Amino acid sequence: SFLSIALFDFFFVPPRFTFAVSDVGYLLTFVVMLVIALLISGLTLRVRAQAETARERERRTAALYAMSRDLAGIRGRGELVGAVTRHVQETFGAPTQILLPNETGRLEAPIGAVPSPAYPLDEKEQSVAAWVFGRGRVAGAGTDTLPAATGLYVPLIGSTGIIGVLGVRPTDPKRFQDPGVLHLLETFAGQAAVALERTLLAERAQREQVEIEAERLRTSLLSSLSHDLRTPLGAITGALSSLLEDRGTMSEATRRDLLQAALEESQRMNRLIGNLLDMIRVESGTLSVQRDWQPLEEPVGVALIRLEDRLRDHPVHVRLPPDLPLVPIDGVLIEQVFINLLENAVKYTPSGTPIEITATAVDGAVRVDVADHGPGLPAGEEARIFEKFYRVPAATATGGVGLGLTIVRGIITAHGGRIWAENRPGGGALFRFTLPLSGPPHVGVPAEAEVA
């Protein structure tokens, strides 16, 4: 402003090319010009400062929005911690670390997160972070609290309390003495706390759900075992006690009937325990499949022979085309599939009703149908019947733990096929499963296979 007035005086006010003023009126002009120039320059500086503040606010808002957008789509704790540290490092240009309490309460990088090599955490820094975690106040480099620390630590405060600490190792600690910069860091910490709390609550809810499901399964298993083991044990005990207490008055036919009853009930217990062992193999993923190319007639025939006594009141019609190709299967496991499906049909259908087994080649696989003429499946329960311990309530049911169809699904899945159930149009249930004619053998089976 002064320079512009001096130049105006030098070039335009007579006498020109000198700083002398011949007319005193020009002095008033100079004063007015100086005041106006000072006002304009002040306003210009203020507008420039406001523009710079607006740009800085825009950059901060964009940084916060970018982190919020990334955190919204992340569910894993490790990925979430990685996203937060990445955004904080990009915004503040300093190594960043998030510390969460472990089972013992010691702060450490959470499981699944990659510790920053540029942020070594020694005992001194650990103690400062623990102080911040315990008191919920900012401390460390650039603050009045524990300023000898290398890092600046901000508490992660959620709705349920302090859940962790955000640490930043600045190259210039004085930068965070700016209230705006420190407030921005605290805002980042607040967003991170909300996202982490959401993840921690989800993990806790999942663990509780798993515990509830495990308890439900244990209860169902104990309830089923207490009923299904007590029944055959009672029959065996009764038959053997009668034989022991006999004083020679019992006929040979009666003795044979009692022994036959004890044998049948022991076989029933053996099947029950076998199903439990098979279920353990399916759940643990140790179900090994030794596939070999063989005709489907072999496992079907063996299953019918093994169930000959139980099928005496249910005629079984087997229709396998003569041109049915060989299938790569584990004969013992597929035999168990047919046994479980046939036993299921016997259990839930009236005496005298037939059971049908058919097979056909379709789209690089063999599809097998096992159909009965019973009451069918409850509407909407076609998928649930493959769940562990699930049993369809029916008057003709004769007990069972509810594992047979779950084991069937596990075996079929291990072969690379799929199984599903539906109601027949004319009445009865229809179980269908496919066995691929190609593909590498599957070594194991997942704990819970998808149901079509």
TrEMBL record:
Location relative to the cell: Membrane
One short Pfam family name for this protein?
A: DUF4118
Key words of the record: ATP-binding, Coiled coil, Kinase, Membrane, Nucleotide-binding, Phosphoprotein, Transferase, Transmembrane, Transmembrane helix, Two-component regulatory system
Recorded E.C. number(s)? 2.7.13.3
Q: Which GO terms describe its cellular component?
A: plasma membrane
> PROSITE patterns given for it?
HIS_KIN
Q: Which GO terms describe its molecular function?
A: ATP binding; identical protein binding; phosphorelay sensor kinase activity
Q: Which reaction does this enzyme catalyse, per its entry?
A: ATP + protein L-histidine = ADP + protein N-phospho-L-histidine
Coiled-coil residue windows: 193-220
Q: Per its record, how is this protein called by name? A: histidine kinase
Taxonomy, top ranks, is: Bacteria, Bacillati, Candidatus Sysuimicrobiota, Candidatus Sysuimicrobiia, Candidatus Sysuimicrobiales
